[in-house]
Protein 1
Amino acid sequence: EQIEKGGYEHFMLKEIFEQPKSVHDTMRGRLLVDEGVIKMAGIWDYIEKFKNANRIIIIACGTSWHAGLIGEYLIEEYARIPVEVEYASEFRYRNPIITDKDVVIAISQSGETADTMAALKLAKEKGAFIYGICNVVDSSIARITDAGSYTHAGPEIGVASTKAFTAQLTILTLIAFKLGKHNGNLGNAEFMSLIAELDAIPRKIEDVLATTHELVQNIAKDFVSATNFLYLGRGYNYPAALEGALKLKEISYIHAEGYPAAEMKHGPIALIDENMPIVIIAPKKGHYDKIVSNVQEIKARKGKVIAVVNKGDTQVSAMADYVIEIPETSECFSPIVASVPLQLLAYYIAVYRGANVDQPRNLAKSVTVE
Ligand code: G6P
């Protein structure tokens, strides 16, 4: 096992550090920047299904569901196809309206999650075209779907999903750009600039790992005894906030809530005092001014702000108690880059609390019972 961990103390840390490679592997052979092409046989062979779809329904559980929410932002923005995202367990039991004009995408690292599998079977029976985004090759979900794209993240051992999540985001980004290019909603110049930027994301993740690793460890030390955390973000980074909170809950057993930053006023703000740590994702692109006022509201109530900002940020950084800098990207890529320091933060808080990060209590890597 020590050999498999490759010198890292835990699989989770190894998997966090593998992300430059896993994101790159997921794009390899698919993203051809010089030719200006995204090659995805699973999409291309069934392009008419996607083109004529009334809507796309994404179903998943856990971290994969968070990836699905970001998929909704991506596909609606770039391909202008309506998207709904559902928990598999709710979808399957609520008699959903599904027709043969629907495309259902299931996202699952393991490809074995019982609720996701059952939801897919239901969609298939009702005539929908079903598509899988799985990490485990030849898994049950990969086999039952009409078509799909594998994430090539490699085996994920840590129960808390990290590299599978960023690989799922990579696939969803490729799908959104490919569909948008094909149906004319994404013009050539923008497409070319987006794919060049996507191609550079693995290097940005590398940069984040190198520049934030030690800093985040030090921040983690100050929050070992925290009992609650809030995670806030807007737009694409609202689901990233949900995922950041889930990571912390899963492995450190600290209660954490993710919220869209503006919704803070409708509840969580009542909890803010000097004992409440608040992680806020505040990159330059994506509602920055709005986030600035959210941070002002938090500081007025003495909350402890840990801000994830772009390099060179001034406004949020001036108010924050802790600042984690990430490189600037277009908004659609920021969840991939911003998730990395949040994974590290959850990891180190859990390690300092003496928790079993690779196998947290009560959780399973693959939930094959409903
Ligand atoms: C479990 C795992 C999570 C995972 C979820 C969905 O809860 O602990 O890490 O996100 O199942 O799993 P899947 O394999 O379908 O992505």
Protein 2
Amino acid sequence: SDDGLLGPAEIRTLAARLGVRPTKTLGQNFLHDPNTIRRIVRTAEVGPDDVVLEVGPGLGSLTLGLLGAAGSVVAVEIDPVLASALPSTVASRMPSLADRLSVVEADAMSVDLSGLRPTALVANLPYNVAVPVVLHLLETVPSLRSALVMVQAEVADRLAAPPGSRTYGVPSAKAAWYCAVSKAGSVPRAVFWPVPNVDSGLVRLVRRDPPDGSRKDTFAVIDAAFAQRRKTLRAALAGWAGGAPRAEEALRAAGVDPTARGETIDVGGFARIASARHVSHK
Ligand code: SAM
């Protein structure tokens, strides 16, 4: 398009020139719709003061959009062919913005990005690892103040679900440890090449203070509570607490009804349960 963004023809030409055959294992579906790219950049609300962390820049569709809005972009790409091609793609399409980009060839799940002090995560995430990547980055990169991620529609529902809703579960409760989470729109599958077999959704996360208590202990309670979704918390947390009576004791100490189910408890409640077992064990 006129503003240098990549459309359908450009994406195919670029892929052919680089010999890229998109793989499912790496979740490679590339955006080829400039309107969607502009919409993501707008919804992310990034500005000149932001250092944007983009996970999985791929052929650079979103990267080009972000460079026009952010102070700088750090792009982390696991695929060596895509990582090494990105600087020249940007240099040829938006030469004046090329020095705002740095590319890191790495797995976003294992590289330490905290030293780069990114302020915002903006990413069209590979589907199969979207939730672990988001949680990992929120945990290990404290400078991140917000995130706007594109994930498959069902995962967007789960991440943003409030307690008591049908899709509330482990991803919702864990993401809520770090952030206020909300859905920010849906994206049809047709804007990707190749076309995936699901639609996508945008999720916005804004950092807030976590509940009091230990994150690890709280996440262990969340995992146990949802491992047996249909059971009462008293039963579901028996293994975690060392018996149903102990689970009941911790739940009462936390001010939680032992016959409630995990799907009704917010992250603050899970944190209180985790701390309560701690206290009753001392
Ligand atoms: N951002 C591009 C776009 O919107 O067109 C590409 C998005 S595609 C859904 C996901 C990208 O993430 C691919 O480029 C893939 O190679 C990369 N990727 C997959 N797993 C990754 C990981 N663990 N760390 C970093 N990048 C990864």
